[in-house]
Design a protein that fits this description.
Rossmann fold, UDP N-Acetylglucosamine Acyltransferase, domain 1, 14% helix, 33% strand
Length: 214
Amino acid sequence: MKKLIIIGTGGMGRETAWLADRINLKEKTYDEISFMDDNKEILGKEINGHKVIGTTDDVEKYPDYYYVCAIGLPRIREQVIKKIKGKLKDIKFETLIDPTAQLSPYIEIGEGSIICSGCLLTVNIKIGEHVIINNNCTVGHDAVIKDYTILYPAVNLSGNTTTGRGCEMGTGMQVIQGKTVGDNVILGAGAVVVRDIEDNCTAVGCPAKPIKFH
């Protein structure tokens, strides 16, 4: 069995710990599930039954553990992952898939990704590294989701869509078939993408339109 460290004790981190608990209920996979967090005030404390065993400066103390970063913001998640990879050369990242998620066998999933409860992913999908797909999302055939992106709950990505690197896809938003969302895009809750969205912008509305660039 594996020992798992979840980085981050915020909402996404606690939900990820619950996901790991659910995996264990179905089939015992982890004999230890712990947290790391850079808030030193909570070191040694238990959160929802799991101990905070260190900060991200301590990864070298746990070379045999598997890691998953459950920080919701893509930019910060990428920074933290680069930091810990620099500290622990042979670090192992775990991919977590909730037992209730439905995935075809024709999906590529990169290391360190998280797929939460109630998700439906069909066929010939490519998911990058350290992607988070939150509760009740759907992803259609031949979709591509690049590294570090997060889909908030109930996002719908239709077939042949591409979602760029480091995006935030707001709760309940949709991308219609064949459209591309660029890198580092923030899409507001309930947005509907009916035309391609360029890189480095925040877009909202139905149809989704950029309102600012970053």
